[in-house]
GAF and ANTAR domain-containing protein
Amino acid sequence: MAGSDSDAGTGVPRPAAVDDLAGKLSDLARTLQHEDSVVATLQAIAGAAVGTVPGAEYAALSVVEHRREVHTRAGTADLAYAVDRVQYEVGEGPCLSAVYEQQTVHVPDMTVEERWPRFTQRAAELGVSSMLSFQLYVQEDNLGALNLYSSRTHAFDDDSAHVGLLFAAHAAVAMSGAQHLEQLNQAISVRDVIGQAKGILMERHKLSADQAFAVLARASQNTNQKLVDVARYLTATGQLTHRTPR
């Protein structure tokens, strides 16, 4: 029927809306491919979520590392960070439920929601009236959630949940790729700085590569520092925190 983008009562977008959503998700994928860091990728995801999921005014991305440390890595406004922070402080809320228990959590009206009373009261006081959270990814002991907020009650409907799930699936792939690239770059950086430190010791003390590495390892053990930190100190200052070999 003209004027409607979804089939009545199903929450499933009609073809025109499907085409529009497919275009937005394709644009998102292309945009995220060009981001050069995890932080930039997450910020792009948060911004795109507001423009893609019906009803969303603000968005934030929460990350739980080792299933314990929870923090917000990206957000579209100070309000999103503030509401996320309330959940961490009181230890309850839609975001934490989405991360640990359910794929999608919907709060139509903060003022009548009874599942997380300590959170919903403070969220309403901050100006958030409804919320939609999606489990974004589960990777070993690291978890994530996409949190969408609105100042209006009942801002999110079936279409919001449907579009949000599709969006979260695309975002999770991009986020996983960005994290893998970051880890690879970190590994290369560590290898390079250790190689530079070994080169300094080899040239200065006429050591073999294995002997130079052993010097770094002893310095790491004696000072209770990571080997890469010892290597960085040596390349920056020319000095070991351990006595140099004879």
Observations:
- The CA atoms of residues 9 and 158 lie 9 Å apart.
- Confidence is low (pLDDT under 50) at residues 1-10.
- The longest strand covers residues 130-139.
- The two ends are 86 Å apart (CA to CA).
